[in-house]
Amino acid sequence: MHEQIRKRCLELGVMVQETGLTVRAVAKKTGYSKSTVHKDLTERLKLVNEALAREVSEILAYHKSIRHIRGGEATKQMWKLKEEHTEETS
């Protein structure tokens, strides 16, 4: 594995470990694509640092387990804002 990729995997893994950010949030913060971040965290990190990969895997599993809740909350918030905007213009 190229040294630059190894370094990136470690940086992304430590970022998730320290902040608990989602793959999407890490991608946005770092400027890498979501697919690159996901591949680095789920596949490549295992080859670089197994212990960190296990911790990151647990965090990602947690995010995956609550994604339906986050989606529902986002939709609820969207409709609430639309409703408020409609009331203002009426």
UniProtKB/TrEMBL annotation:
The keyword Hydrolase does not apply. Gene3D superfamilies: Tetracycline Repressor, domain 2. Keywords: DNA-binding, Transcription, Transcription regulation. It holds the Pfam family SpoIIID. One of its GO terms (molecular function) is DNA binding. The keyword Plastid does not apply. InterPro entries: Spore_III_D (IPR014208), Tscrpt_reg_HTH_DeoR_CS (IPR018356). Transmembrane segments: none annotated. This is Sporulation transcriptional regulator SpoIIID.
